[in-house]
Amino acid sequence: MVRTFRGGIHPQYYKENTNTLKIEQMPAPAKMYFPVLQHIGAPCEPIVKIGDHVMIGQKIADSSAPVSAPIHASVSGTVSAIEMHPHPSGSDCLTIVVDNDSLDTFSPNITDCQSAFNDISTEELLTIVREAGIVGMGGAGFPAHLKLSSALGKIDTLLINCAECEPFLSSDHRMIIEETDSIINGVQILRKFFDLEKATICIEDNKQDAIAILKQRLSRDYANGIELSILETKYPQGGEKQLIKAVTGREVPSGKLPADVKCIVMNVDTAASIFRAVYLRQPVYRRIVTVSGDAVINPKVLSVRIGTPFQDVLDFCSGLKGNVSKIINGGPMMGIAQYNLSVPVIKTTSGILALSDSHDREVSKPVCIHCGKCIAVCPMKLEPIYLSMFIKKGNYDDAENYRIMDCIECGSCSFICPGRLNLVQEFRVGKLKVIEKRRRQQVK
C-alpha cells in the first residue's frame, strides 16, 4: 500500500539529470574552509591555532555547550588562518582555513572497531556519535547524539527517512543504491540502541531502482527486523511530521515533538554516518552532494569533502552556462540562495543548484487573489492567507494564535500561489517577531 498525508504539492521533480549517475569522488582543492557552525545550536570554538598541522578526521573545533557538535578536518595540511568567512546561511562565520598538503594523512583515531560493536553500551554509543560530529544530514543539522538521547525510553517506532522529496536532489537516492549495507547496518545499530523489535525504511515510489535493491537486501538475515514502507511521491513527504502521519497514522500535536507520539525519524545519511562512526570511528568529513540545475554544464552526484568551496564544486562539474539567476544551497523549496561562491560545503549541504532565469517565478507586484489554494496544500493544516495578512499588519498575536510557529517552511503555499506571494519569507520574519515577543514577555 502506498501511503501519504493530507495536503502537499506535486512539483516537477527534475531528478532525471542525476538519479542514474554514480556517486563520484571529488578531489579536495588546495584550500579548505571549516566554519565553526555546521549545526543547530551553539558554535564551536577552534582547538587548533595557525601553523598547526592537522590530519583527516582530527577534531579542530568543539564546544562545551549542551547543543553543539564538533568539527573535524577533511584533509591533512596546515592551518593557515582563523578568520571570518562567508557561510551558506548568508552571514559571515568564524572559519578555520587549512592549506591542503594533498597527502591525505588520516588521524590514527580512525580505525576498524567492528568486533567491539556488540559490547558498546548506550552511553558509549552516544559518546561515539557526539565525538563523530554527526548531525541531522537531511538539512536540519540537529546534533544526532541529543536527538537519540532525548528519545531514549520514549519511543516504539523508528523511521528512516529516504523520501528525498525536494526537486533536483538525488543524494539520498544514490546512497541507498550504492551504500545499502552501511545504511542497513546503521539502522540495526539504532534499533539495538532503542531496543526495538523492528524499524521502518520509508521511501517514495519514484525510486523504484532503490526500492528493488532495498527489498533484495532486506530479505537477508542481517537485515532482520527492518521493513519497507512505500510512500506516494509528493512534496513534502520527507517532512518529519508528514512522514510519521503517512506511515503510522499518528499526528504530532502543535508544539510537540515526534517522541511525544513515540516516534523518531532519522535521515538515511545520518544512519550511515552512525554506522561509520561505530565501526570505523570515522567522523563526518565528507557528504554526498547533488550538483544540478539547468545552469550546470555537467550535473553530478559527488562525494565532497566538508570545507570545499562551492566554486570548486561547480568547476568540477565543468562550470555554469547561460543566464544564471540563482545558486542554492540545498533544494529549491527549502534551500538558501547564495550570493558568494566562496562559501564551503558543510554537513547540511545536500545539494548545490544553479538555476537559469527560466526558473524565476518572481513578479513585480505579487497579489493575493483569495483563491484559498494555500490552505488546501498546507501539510500542517495552517491558513497561510490569514497568516500573511496578520504579518503584513504587524499583528503577531493573531499570527501566533493561527499557529505560525507550526509552519515547517516547506514552501508549498508559495509554490501553489497564483499571485506569487512570498509567503515563506513572510512567515520566517513573522516567526522571528513572535520569538522576540515571547522573549520580551519572559523578561517582564
How would you describe this protein?
48% of the residues are buried. The chain has 444 residues and is an alpha/beta fold. α3 packs parallel to α5, α4 crosses α7 and α10 crosses α13. It is globular, with a radius of gyration of 22 Å. It has 13 helices and 17 strands. The protein has a six-stranded mixed sheet, sandwiched between helices. It has a four-stranded antiparallel sheet with strand order 2-8-7-4, with no helix packed on it. β5 and β6 form a beta hairpin. Helix content is 29%, strand content 19%.
Terminus-to-terminus distance: 53 Å
- Count of alpha and pi helical runs: 13
User: What form results from the Cα inertia axes?
Assistant: globular
Q: What does the largest sheet look like? A: 6 strands, mixed
What Rg is obtained from the alpha carbons, in whole angstroms?
A: 22 Å
Element-by-element helix/strand order: EEEEEEEEHHEHHEHEHEHEEHEEEHHHHH
| Average pLDDT | 93
Report the sheet-strand fraction.
15-25%
Given helix and strand content, the structural type is: alpha/beta
pLDDT < 50 stretches: none
Lateral strand order in the biggest sheet: 1-14-13-17-15-16
Helix content: 25-40%
Count of beta strands: 17
